[in-house]
Amino acid sequence: MGLFGLTAKKTFEEYYEDGMKNLSGMRYGDAIISLNKAAELRPGDQMAWYMMGNAYRGLGQFENALKAFAVAVNIEPDDPMAWYRVGDAQAVLGQTTEALASFNRVIELDPDHHESWFSRGCVLSDLNKDGEALASLEKAIAIKPDYAMAYYIRSIVLTKTGNTREALPSIEAAIRLDPQNQEFQQARQMILASSAEPARQAPSPDILLQKANQCVEQGNYPEALRYLDESIAANPKNPFAWTNKGFCLGSLGRFDEALAALDQGLSLAPEPVLLGVICRFRVITLSSVGRHEEAMRAYDQALSVNAEDGAALGGKAQEFLALGRYDEALLAIDRAIQLAPDREDFPGIRSQIVAVRGAGRSVPVKQFCTFCGQPLNNPQVTFCPSCGKKLAP
Question: Total domain count for the chain?
Answer without folding.
Answer: 2
